[in-house]
Each structure stands twice: as structure tokens, then as C-alpha cells.
Amino acid sequence: MQPFELLLDQGTLATRIAELGDEISRDYAGKAIFLIGVLKGCFVFMADLIRHIDLSVEIEFLTASQFRKSSAPTELSFQGGPEVKVTGRHVLVVEGVVDTGHTVQVILKSLKEQEPASLEVVTLLDKPGSHRSKMEIKYRGFSVGNEFVIGFGLDNTQRYRNLPFVGRMSES
Ligand code: IMP
Ligand code: MG
Description:
This protein has 3 helices and 9 strands.
């Protein structure tokens, strides 16, 4: 038996991601946007999302893998290096899942210092019951409970990112 159960199937994910892309395309109509994906969990969602955004789009990735729930965050690093700048740009941070919100908060704080033209978050999954502080998440695919989710880019100890659906780890 698999150690997980189905939470969101492929069709449900595809429909909602298309809606998010349409919403973003409408909200930023006439503008160029800069999508910054938070590795590694963003990568499947972001690949699908950008194909539903009908705007001028540039992408970048950043790594925040040193974050742990209880520890102070360490440095963020752009895949494109320290020369990546967001000043004056319309920035959308792309996350796979927001849990406590620490990761997103640190990223937003850091990016704000560069004075982007606008700065918002799009996350496939959000766990509002786990947030440790007030969060501004403009675009969310789905709200889920305080459960550990996997698949569609999200891992449990680096496994299961390849599952084409979102599952929840079973109680064992
Ligand atoms: P934060 O607690 O919002 O800072 O989330 C930190 C990171 O933990 C996320 O970007 C994910 O990489 C990971 N994470 C949190 N909850 C889950 C989950 O349910 N499944 C897989 N990864 C998770
Ligand atoms: Mg992880």
C-alpha cells in the first residue's frame, strides 16, 4: 500500500491553475511580469502556470532550502546570481506550498528592499491554519489543512515530486 492518499487530482489541479493564469493575465494586463519561483517545490506548478499567462513573462528561481520551521532563515540565492534585480518590476513570487509562511515572509522582505513596482505571491497550496503571522497571499490555488502534502513538485524527504497529483501522507 502507498503511504499517501489522493487529495487533489490532475483535472482539479489543471482547472484551477488555468483559472489562476487567467486571473493573473487580467490583473496585469498590459504589463510585463517577473515570476520568481521558490525552488524546488514550485517547479511543476510554475511550468503549468506560465503556459496560462498571456503577458510578457520573465522567470527566475531562488533557493531558500536552508529554512527550517523553527530556525532563523539564512540567505536567499537567485539561480541567476546576485546580479538579478527586481527594482521597478512587477514581481510575482511562485510557491508550491505556504505552511508557516516564514519562507515567503523572508523572501518578500528581502525583495521589497529593492523596491519592485509591485510584489505579490502566487502559491499552489496554502495552509492558512499553520501561518505564524499575518500573510498577504494574493493568489492561491487551494487551501489545505495542517497536513503534510506531497506530489506535483512537493516532496517528503526529496521523494514524490514526480506524482502528477497532490496527495497527503497517510497516518501510519
Ligand atoms: P514555510 O513553513 O511556509 O516557511 O514553508 C517552508 C517550506 O517547507 C515550503 O516551501 C516547503 O518546501 C516545505 N513544506 C511545508 N509544508 C509542506 C508540505 O506539506 N509538503 C511538502 N513540503 C512542505
Ligand atoms: Mg521539502
